[in-house]
Amino acid sequence: MAVGTVLVTGGTGYIGSFTTLALLDNGYDVVIVDSLLNSSKAALDRIELICGKRPTFYQVDITDEAGLDDVFSKHPDIDSVIHFAALKAVGESGEIPLEYYRVNVGGSITLLRSMAKHNVSNIVFSSSATVYGDATRIPGMIPIPENCPIGPTNTYGHTKVMIETVITDHIEAERRKAKKAGKPFEQWNGALLRYFNPCGAHPSGIMGEDPQGVPYNLLPLLGKVATGERDKLLVFGDDYASKDGTAIRDYIHVLDLASGHLAALNYLREKKPGVKAWNLGSGRGSTVFEMIKAFSKVVGRDLPYQVVDRRLGDVLDLTANPALANEELQWKTKLTLEDACADLWRWVENNPKGYRQDPPAELLEKLKASKAVKN
């Protein structure tokens, strides 16, 4: 008997697929909706290879209300949603802002409307640390706590803030209506997870990040430089007020991030807190140059890079203060930056074509052997 059934939007994407894996490993049934705009159905095969269970999948765009209604109708046991589906590139968001508002904000409203129609009352929203903007503008806000004033510096961040606001208003309104009618209201809950820079891959080497087209994040780009798919890494600015001039970010292993989403879902179901925001991060800041050095060490050679101008909307320091999640969710990161680099290199070295190739036989044999030992 499953603990519950969860709809995961964007569940074939990088963080969505790893969260699906964590849910399945912890007794949940999972239904995924994904447009496959920036992901692959092959992620479903990799999830099944690792945990022996396969999520139910529908190719539905987050802006398609009829499509979402159909999924909820077919699965009346869905009681919670973990919402990842979004366009997510900071640079691109400044170039095509209307599309970002249409998909991210419009899609989230569509999802909430469909959820309300089908009486699905828990939502865990995959937000972002970009909602804080440049936290160095306020004294004493690094590492960043949840009470840091919101102030995004790019369109992507603006969409995340809007969605947080929409979810908060929706959950609070549903609670008020139910209370006024003398009905139970505690079932309406939302978690706003502001996470920092996800990285790494599954330690088996058969599941990782496989962006369609050009990746926008540092570690996947370094992976492509290491495999020779790209000539060099572009470093956006070396004139920040950091120890080496490059921007500081809090890197979190994707397995830790997935377990944070699971912890937030369990908290909503057990504690019924209304709407809560938590930071998911390690609390450790690393500069771009430190990351290049750490990954180069794992690869075994220096990776070429070129410093270019800063990107519009980038900020100096996004390091988390994860104390609230540590305390309330009983969650903290377990894996190191070195783990993330080693796992990422195992993934890209063995899967240069990502999900557009079969997983290497040697890695599958190792995975089978490790599962046999566990059983």
UniProtKB/TrEMBL annotation:
InterPro entries: Epimerase_deHydtase (IPR001509), NAD(P)-bd_dom_sf (IPR036291), UDP_G4E (IPR005886). Pathway: Carbohydrate metabolism; galactose metabolism; Carbohydrate metabolism; hexose metabolism. The keyword Isomerase applies. Keywords: Carbohydrate metabolism, Galactose metabolism, Isomerase, NAD. GO terms for cellular component: cytosol. NCBIfam families: galE. Mutarotase converts alpha-aldose to the beta-anomer. It is active on D-glucose, L-arabinose, D-xylose, D-galactose, maltose and lactose. This is UDP-glucose 4-epimerase. It comes from Neurospora tetrasperma (strain FGSC 2508 / ATCC MYA-4615 / P0657).
